[in-house]
Amino acid sequence: MSGDFINLLADLKEEEVLKLTKERLDAKEDPLKILDDAREGMSIVGKRFAGGEYFLPELVFSGELLAQVTNLVKPHLTGEGVQQKKIGKVIIATVAGDIHDIGLNIVDFMLDVNGFEVTNMGVDVPVEKIVKAVKEIKAPVLGLSGFLTPAFDAMKETVEALEKEGLRKGLKIMIGGGQMDDEVCKYAKADAYGKDAMAAVALTKKWYGVE
Amino acid sequence: MEKQWSEMTWQERREERFKKWLTPAAPISPAMEKLYKERLTRMIKAIKMEIPDRVPMHLAANSFVAYNNGHTLYDVLYDYSLIKPDWIKFLEDYEQDSADAPGFFAARVYELLDYKVNAWPGHGLPKTSTMHNFVEKEYMQADEYDLFMKDPFDFGLRKFTPRTWGAFAPLANIPSLSSYSGLPERLMMMCQDPNFKKLFKAIMEASDENVKYQKVMMECAQESLKRGFPPLMGGVMLAPFDTVADMLRGTSGVVKDMFRQPEKLLESLEIIADNSIKSTVGMVNMARSPIVFVPMHKGADSFMSVPQFEKFYWPTFRKLILGVVNEGCVPMMIIDGSYNEARLKIISELPKSCVIWTMEKTDMALSKKILGNSACIAGNVTAAMLYTQTPEKIKEYAKWLIETCAPGGGYILALGSGIDKCDPKNLHAVVEAGLEYGYYK
Ligand code: B12
Description:
The complex is a heterodimer.
Chain A: H1 2-10, H2 14-26, H3 31-50, H4 56-73, E1 88-94, H5 102-113, E2 116-120, H6 127-137, E3 141-145, H7 150-164, E4 172-176, H8 182-188, E5 192-193, H9 197-208
Parallel strand pairs in A: 1-2, 1-3, 3-4, 4-5
Helix pairs in contact in A: 1-3, 2-4, 3-4, 5-9, 6-7
Chain B: H1 10-22, H2 30-47, E1 57-58, H3 64-67, H4 73-78, H5 83-93, H6 107-113, E2 118-121, E3 124-125, E4 133-134, H7 145-150, H8 152-164, H9 183-192, H10 194-226, E5 235-236, H11 240-248, H12 250-260, H13 262-285, E6 291-296, H14 306-325, E7 330-335, H15 341-347, E8 356-359, H16 364-371, E9 376-381, H17 383-388, H18 391-405, E10 411-415, H19 424-437
Parallel strand pairs in B: 1-10, 2-3, 5-6, 6-7, 7-8, 8-9, 9-10
Antiparallel strand pairs in B: 2-4
């Protein structure tokens, strides 16, 4: 059952996935196992995206399926539920003044299915909020997304504020999104530019020293 | 006897429209009329993939026009009197081969009618913001395709309009007006409702305000003309998929529909294409220029696979393009993001030289290779470049663009996207490159 479920989810078969979820719950299967399988299915989706087989529509739709499965399973969860072991924390945000989140959410998705604990702060995130999050969450990697030319300055201001707060050392900052490139990375004093979500994963892995 | 419109080929119809375009909309000095014709001939030759005297240039500069004269976007959105001096400075600072009027809007009109689809500096955005924001939402629900297809007018009147314009909210509660009779009675009933009285008052106020703004725009267009700049924009349209993905369902709405109700989506795209042909041609009929701007968004590399492009994006877009081309219009696409080889090949199969493809980030050498025998290309001095580079680097890049794309004709030196702030020296570098390297020997 579990193999079917994983593949059906990876193949984005909405009706079948939901039907099977209900059947497994009715059969009193461990709800955590179902969520684990869902995660595995999502990880296949991530691989297919990285391989150029899936695109934005498949990612968004798989997220939609996962949300439905989670909603079905949730009422059956008792107690805490074991947290899946994650490699480490990453904070991502679209900088102040910019509301593009499609790329950001893909980066979120890919980091997540590759084993990172992602704090996605959403869009138009003011400098102070990012500084506060870095302070509190203590993630060693920060990803800044931005699609607009005005985001160049917002990124720079964010990096400078982190410097001023003494948070820059030991923090790796990557940037990405529409108008960004290596020049902007230099301008904003970030550590690296990533052209897509796979690059975000590769950079994060490199900084964490994992393969 | 002259040929009737109905008997003409699309090329003949286009020639008719070019003739009209070559005649300035209002009398100007003979020297400027000469310049007007020179510039426009350059554009027309590039479109027809013939060799002009030099590569034409087009700078769509958006809010840069304000910043270039020491103002902000906020300033010009609320004080129309600043627009004309800003525009004149822009016209006098940068040589190019066409110019319309600035692309701002009247903030107070939107405020009076509570327009919800945009936020701008001073209204939902800090006054320092350099661009306005489009607010992407599901303005049409997943289950409203049938209504949209069966009766687009009713959908627009009672669903879309009240959702997107706060002042028009009372329209959400009226019975359908889609009937051939009974309209006067129903309108009268509406007028008795205090909510509608408020709406009518808002419309009156907004239209008075709009007159002031339009007057400034007319004057700006006149300033362009007086300096021998032909207008470029005759109309605007969207690829049918973008109409749904941008305006109606939003990105996440439309991709769900691609999986859950692809037939409904495809059927609506057909209807949108048919309707857009009519409305676009109507727009162009009233304009001087036959050029139709087409900003393209969600068919790009990062949005969908090539098979999805072939299924959802291209067929109805192609139908729309050919529909307006057949009426002598010239669609000028702006491809946001980038198109890979497979996509370029697909779009290259249109009849030769019937459109213009402006590129934001698409590889220009590849574009020339694949579209070189198909259509005029334009672009891709990117906004990022204008922001972060030096004039020397930009000039060098523009030179490379000319050397790569101009041979044989069919290239317009242009920006890849709108700009807000950048060092004016950088924009000058683009123009300099055009004037220095753009002449055909
Ligand atoms: C879709 C879109 C929108 C949508 C956004 C919907 C949403 N929820 O995000 C809407 C319609 C709302 C919108 C609004 C606007 N937009 Co817009 N938009 C786009 C468009 C067409 C695509 C962007 C996108 O999402 N692509 C899809 C993603 C998946 O593709 P991708 O970029 O390849 O994604 C990868 C990388 O970016 C990377 N990545 C992303 N983030 C990060 C972070 C890190 C750390 C790393 C390593 C990697 C990484 O990973 C992603 C996945 O692989 C671009 C065009 C373009 N070239 O990008 C314009 C564009 C960015 N927009 C533009 C503009 C001007 C605007 C508006 C100002 C327009 C307006 N007046 O309304 C507003 C601005 C709103 C604001 N304040 O932010 C301009 C910017 C020009 C400029 N000078 O800055 C562009 C370039 C269009 C153009 N050519 O003019 N937009």
